Amino acid sequence: MPVIVLCSTKGGVGKSTTALLLAQVYAEAGSQVTLIDADPNQPLATWASRFTKSVPERLEIIGGVTEETVVEVIDDAAERKPFVIVDLEGSANVTASYAISRADLVLIPMRGKQLDVDQAARVVSLIERESKVFRRQIPYRVMFSMIGMLQSREQKHIRATLDGKGIPVLDTALFERAAFSAIFQIGGTIFDLTAEDVSNPKAAQENATAVAQSVIAALNEETTR
Ligand SMILES: Nc1ncnc2c1ncn2[C@@H]1O[C@H](COP(=O)(O)OP(=O)(O)O)[C@@H](O)[C@H]1O
Ligand SMILES: [Mg+2]
């Protein structure tokens, strides 16, 4: 417990990156974490197998998870581990529906682009439908991933649109930073990166940590609701 699910109807919005960063921050803080890779492309399982030696001990990665096994794998991990994070393919498929049904929080990443608003709204309506099916309000947050540090006019507009629709947004955004893509190329965690690898690794660590803390705050808000 808890189960955090990353979901979007399209690829390339930062699901796998966010999933891996959250897992790394919680593991770095001393928690046991299971990261479930339910994307057939296996980006996180590939990261783990390519850089076996630099995977933190507290971070367990389960790959090869499919529509047939996803619920069982999540339930089993949730019994064993304080944090379970599920990464999905960018598609509203059956695997995504099953994972959402088990979520304590669904995170819907979007870049600060108008096109991503429709994508996020589709995930929200999928979650709302599932909430009806299961007679349980499944908690969710849209989160900005991969955005520039200065808030653009487009982002402000998107934020207002989401507020207008009553769609909750995670308090902290994940900025676009070289450190967040570097971990996929050189392995290890953002806490292993040095100034030789990327510029200002500390800023990236702080940003990822702040996002991870906001996720915990959202989980707490939902359990006390
Ligand atoms: N915050 C970020 N900063 C820099 N690069 C990012 C960030 N988020 C994602 N990327 C890059 O964007 C691409 C898509 O991200 P990914 O996490 O794989 O998206 P998804 O899982 O939604 O398909 C990858 O090349 C990844 O390295
Ligand atoms: Mg992905």
UniProtKB/TrEMBL annotation:
InterPro entries: DNA_Partitioning_ATPase, P-loop_NTPase, VirC1. SUPFAM superfamilies: P-loop containing nucleoside triphosphate hydrolases (SSF52540). This is Partition protein ParA. Pfam families: VirC1 (PF07015).
